[in-house]
Amino acid sequence: MTAALQVDGVSKWFGDTVALSDVSFSSRPGVTGLLGHNGAGKSTLFDLLAGFSSPSQGTVRVLGLDPRTEPLVHSRLGLVPDGDGLWPFLTAQQVVSFLARNRGVRDYEGAARSALRTVGMEAAADRRVAGYSKGMRQRVRLAQALVHDPEVLLLDEPLNGLDPAQRRADVDLVRRLGSQGRTVLVSSHILAEVERMADRVLVVVNGRLVAEGTPTGVQELLAQSARTVRVETDGARRLGGLLLAEDCVDGIELGEDGLVVQTSDGAQLALRLPQLARDAGLQLRRVVPIGEDLESVFTRLTASARGAGR
Amino acid sequence: MSLRSVLRGKRVVAVALLPLLIAVVAVALTLTAGDRDRSQGYAVLGGELLFLVIALVALVLGVNAFGDDRDERTLRLLLATTLPRWQIAVAKYAAAAGVTWLACLPATLSCLALATASDLPLGTAVWSLLLASALGAAAYVGVFVLLSLVLSRAVLVGLAYLVLWEGLLAGTTTAFRNLSVGAYASRVAAAPFDDIPFATADASVAVAAVVLLALTAITVALAGGRLRRAHV
Hints:
The complex is a heterodimer of chains A (310) and B (232). Chain A is an alpha/beta fold and 310 residues long. Chain A has 10 helices and 13 strands. In chain A, strand 11 (249-254) and strand 12 (258-263) form a beta hairpin. The two termini of chain A are 36 Å apart. Chain B is built from 10 helices and no strands. The two termini of chain B are 20 Å apart. The A-B interface holds A 47, 50-54, 71-72, 74-75, 77, 79, 81-90, 98-99, 102-104, 141, 144 and B 1, 4-5, 8-9, 72-77, 79-85, 231-232.
């Protein structure tokens, strides 16, 4: 069976800037999260999948079709593009029904009402978009992606601009769409968001696909890769000496409150550190990974993607 | 949608003011001037100024046919439909060209009012001026829609083109006039005159009309092709 989204050896460059480098993956039904920091190449990948640009190298297929030359693919593909663009002089109902009609939906008015109800926008459906908040605009953009009941959904940062309650509702909606058997590719730069929505994660760093797997698998991969940990203890110097003998420790720095430990295997360190402290009769007050936001995780992963990117 | 997009806001009102100014002058001349002055007025307003105004209105509406969608980031939504891109380009073009012609219609009709008092054949004046304004609007909008898809500073380039080429160079020699959209439109408008009192392209009325139609078809086709290949 052909994958709904098939990306083979795709590179995309703009002049000297490499936006994507040799990216390959195929989708499967369910929600796939595309994780990457701003500028990692997520939106470029969405543009290629939506047919808004063509790859400099490689091939992109959506439902077996080239999205660049087959606009009919949009009757089966729903898209929330980057940004918050909507025609301000139209009502939400007009926006969504216009797009439904031009994607081949017969009862486009009814379909638009239903899609707007799904995203909780029925009450404001007949108001002009110009007066909407960013969150409302984002929900209308989600409604237009759903209005033609597509098999494939490409959602580029769909939770941007939503308040916490709306985020929760939309996370549930995305999960539901995936459980209905649709192929959903949803991007975010927030790890926790992707974890909640997706049952498979693709990690993009500097235009390269550097990790792929279940959210748990990707987390384990991250845990095993190099990291920096701050350890607060009552015997910093002694513990530092013990840690230096461990294979998983690359370096140690003594500070006022404790140690800063460089490790090549976070999982192994997490196992050995309490054992060493207990054997030495030391108390571990705090063990904190330093800079474990997505940005620093990506920085570490970039090591495996060295040579690519901008 | 394309039509609503063109008609929105204050822009269309602003661009309609310029043709209205021509209309006011033409009506004032019709009511107050003598026959000879009316004939001269018809030649100046209907033969030359009308097409300058059409060009300016076409510049504003043609460049913004896709400009608004770019600025408001709705172009991707528009392209995320099953419509072929050439069809989107044609729809945008048609809306801008139609509104340009309609916005300039008061000026066109007022110029015709001037013609009623002259010794020109009125029937010929009517069809030639209506045809010339329609063909001129069609060709200018085609040029400016294409410019907006090719260049990022289409307004500036378009304005420079109108001032330098259409305004200055086309007024100097026949060779330049034969490469001017306005000069061909003026030639169609000059159909009622035995002795043409204003500068036009050196061609018959039929050839001038064909040139404008061909330019329209070429620019719209190129705009469709450009949109198809565009990276948005």
